[in-house]
Write a structure and sequence with these properties.
Elements: H1 6-55, H2 64-77, H3 81-112, H4 115-118, H5 126-155, H6 159-183, H7 187-212, H8 225-228, H9 232-260, H10 262-275, H11 277-298, H12 302-338, H13 349-372, H14 380-401, H15 405-428, H16 433-440
Helix pairs in contact: 1-5, 1-6, 1-9, 1-10, 1-11, 2-3, 2-5, 2-9, 2-11, 3-5, 5-6, 5-7, 6-7, 9-10, 9-14, 10-12, 11-12, 11-13, 12-13, 12-16, 13-15, 14-15
Length: 446
């Protein structure tokens, strides 16, 4: 049974996401200066570069976690709890099997191949790198397993509970890691601290969600292939999305770190973290309404889906405009105070990154709607292409133009993608463009 009314679910989701953003801001505001103080710019930069490598393994769930969550939401909206349980069981065993295989192969490669030389590390020693990446890989594997478990909270209308649990454990992970760093530990112990808390997090969620959703049972190992097979096509499309996201997030981190060095990577990562506060703000809205698209479509309430889409796009753009104006005025001062003068708002990189955040906000609401009802397949190739465009443009220009070429490439790719996403979302909702624009320019209502 789906918990609560749509309005109560959205409002509680917004409250939970506000808590999530407070946690994120607190972790970032405290983490960057403390890690810079205790580890120094070079060692901290090498940690960021090393931390980015296992993140690529997040794609090993093949996009099935998100797609299966949406399918479970659609099934529950139709009161088909048996199918929801079959989807969960098959997807969970499939994701963990593939994730275990991929992560195992990656760990083996870390101990056999010269990653230390490839990453051009100076302070981190080869053995440190091997142990730290091994621990972080196990951490990522548990994150992959948690994707579907946390998604199950969405399907029963308890998204807010899942968010509160998730972000409470984030605080605990951060506190454990920061505690050992202040104590004098290096990257291996820091990675171990992350992992220990993540193990506790995994088992807590596993028990909690099973008590809230009686249909959610694992039982005997089975991929439930007849139920799972139709989901593989949208899942592979979702993996394409993850590939694009990884190229833009972790790929750029790796490129900046290898080509320009640890100091430039700290600049890029810190400025991006500050500017991304605007993206995290609109995430409060997008994450709160994500499952409501599947519920509305499952109930054949296309009008509710249209209203949700229009208002989320509207709120995304307005909140982002307000945020970037504030960041433009106060950002350099905040950055100097935050890092104690170790990182500056270098121009034109800082302003260009703010422009990218605004362009990015123009398509996130529509993209969220397409993912929320599994209608993303036809444009995932466009997303991958535009993401590759970012990497290729940055790779060609970063040596000549420096770090400022990165946000320029991101603005270009997001501008292209925005047009495709809006067109597709209105096709799915069967809504004419004039009607969408008229609603988007009217007063927001829930």
């Amino acid at each position: 049974m789906i918990h609560g009314s749509r309005k109560s679910r959205i409002l509680s989701g917004i409250s939970a996401n506000v808590y999530a953003q407070i946690v994120t801001i607190g972790v970032q505001l405290a983490g960057v200066p403390l890690l810079l103080h205790h580890w120094g710019v070079q060692y901290y930069g090498e940690w960021l570069l090393m931390f980015s490598i296992p993140s690529y393994l997040g794609m090993s769930d093949l996009g099935l976690g998100t797609v299966a969550t949406t399918e479970m939401s659609l099934s529950i909206a139709r009161k088909d709890y048996q199918r929801a349980g079959q989807v969960f069981k098959g997807a969970y065993f499939f994701i963990t099997s593939v994730g275990l295989a991929v992560c195992g192969l990656f760990v083996a490669s870390v101990w056999l191949l010269p990653y230390h030389d490839w990453l051009n590390l100076q302070l981190v020693q080869p053995r440190e790198l091997q142990w730290a990446i091994t621990l972080l890989t196990i951490y990522v594997f548990l994150a992959i397993s948690l994707t579907l478990l946390l998604g199950a909270y969405r399907t029963i209308g308890r998204y807010a509970r899942g968010q509160v649990i998730s972000n409470t454990f984030r605080i605990m992970e951060f506190a454990a890691m920061l505690g050992v760093v202040i104590w004098g530990a290096g990257i291996v112990v820091a990675a171990a601290a992350f992992l220990i808390v993540r193990v506790c997090y995994f088992f807590f969620v596993l028990q909690d969600i099973r008590s809230k959703a009686v249909w959610l049972k694992l039982g005997k190992f089975s991929w439930e292939w007849p139920v799972l097979r139709p989901l593989l096509s949208p899942s592979l499309s979702m993996m394409t999305v993850y590939m694009g996201q990884t190229f833009v997030t972790q790929g750029l981190v790796t490129m900046v770190g290898v080509v320009l060095g640890a100091s430039s990577l700290v600049l890029f990562s810190t400025v991006r973290t500050l500017c991304n506060f605007a993206k995290q703000l609109i995430g409060i809205v997008n994450l709160s309404v994500f499952s409501e698209y599947a519920i509305s479509i499952g109930n054949q309430d296309i009008g509710a889906a249209r209203r949700l889409h229009t208002r989320s796009v509207q709120v995304n753009v307005v909140l982002t405009m307000v945020s970037i104006v504030g960041l433009k005025v106060a950002g350099p001062f905040v950055l100097d105070l935050w890092t104690k003068g170790k990182v500056e708002a270098v121009e034109p990189f800082f302003t260009l990154y703010l422009v990218y955040i605004l362009v990015n906000s123009m398509w996130l609401g529509s993209w969220n709607m397409l993912l929320g009802c599994n209608q993303h397949q036809s444009i995932t190739r466009v997303y991958l292409f535009t993401s590759l465009l970012v990497i290729i443009s940055a790779f060609i220009g970063i040596g000549r133009f420096g770090i400022s070429i990165v946000p320029v490439a991101m603005i270009l790719s997001d501008g292209i993608f925005s047009a495709f996403v809006l067109k597709k979302s209105l096709e799915v909702l069967q809504q004419p463009m004039p009607e969408f624009l008229r609603q988007a320019l009217s007063r927001p209502t829930l």
